[in-house]
Design brief:
Layout lengths: L28 E8 L5 E5 L6 E6 L9 E4 L7 H5 L6 E2 L5 E5 L9 E15 L2 E2 L2 E6 L16 H13 L10 E8 H31 L1
Parallel strand pairs: 5-8, 6-9
Antiparallel strand pairs: 1-4, 1-7, 2-3, 4-6, 7-8, 7-9, 7-10
């Protein structure tokens, strides 16, 4: 279990310590923490206890994510997110994943950026809701004017669907992953709102304890 001692005072925890967006940001602009780049064939993931980026596993295949891959701070996929996904009772219990398209090749992870949410993929992995929000880098010279997934070339979404449907494949074994439902901006914002609610339902006590400690 987490406690307020898990908040690293010297290096902000990307999940708990960062804000999901600036107070004056437009409705669809969010802050994203990037775990992987489009060059990575090793699965990097946030170590939730320490807040540092760790090696989760080497990928078995040569495929790499077709976009920057990370998550939205202070989100959690639990009951509220699962309620938006038919035929499942649970979500994966992780922060809400985000894929960010950028025209310029960003070559390093463990960074934060601002991105405009344009849609998402309702991924079901082993019977758990595991949505992938799709976004574009704010101010991008090619994709910066995209506001909904309908404005994005279809091949971009198809590559994401292919990656997430195959990145866990092992020869001779079946993988129970569905990535059939692609949704637009408005539904993506509802998924984000549900993930924010799940976060505060499960981890709000940490922030309350930290505030009490600061005021003591």
């Amino acid at each position: 279990m987490y406690s307020n001692r898990d908040f690293n005072r010297w290096r902000r925890h990307p999940w708990h310590g960062l804000h999901i967006k600036a107070d004056d940001a437009p409705e669809d602009i969010y802050q994203v923490y990037i775990e992987m780049t489009a060059d990575d064939v090793v699965k990097y993931e946030l170590d939730k206890a320490s807040g540092f980026l760790m090696v989760d596993r080497p990928q078995r295949t040569t495929s790499s994510p077709p976009a920057l891959y990370g998550f939205l701070p202070r989100t959690h996929c639990a009951e509220e997110v699962a309620n938006l996904c038919p035929d499942v009772d649970v979500a994966d219990g992780d922060p809400l994943d985000v894929c960010v398209f950028s025209e310029r090749h960003i070559t390093r992870a463990d960074i934060i950026l601002n991105a405009r949410v344009i849609g998402g993929i309702q991924m079901i992995d082993g019977g758990e809701a595991d949505d992938k929000i799709i976004a574009v880098l704010e101010g991008d010279n090619i994709w910066g004017d995209v506001h909904d997934i309908a404005d994005l070339p279809k091949i971009k979404v198809e590559r994401l669907q292919h990656y997430f449907s195959t990145y866990k494949l092992v020869p001779g074994k079946d993988v129970n992953i569905k990535v059939d439902h692609v949704y637009g901006r408005d539904e993506a914002l509802r998924v984000i709102a549900a993930a924010e609610k799940d976060y505060w339902n499960h981890f709000g006590h940490l922030h309350e304890a930290a505030k009490r400690e600061e005021n003591a």
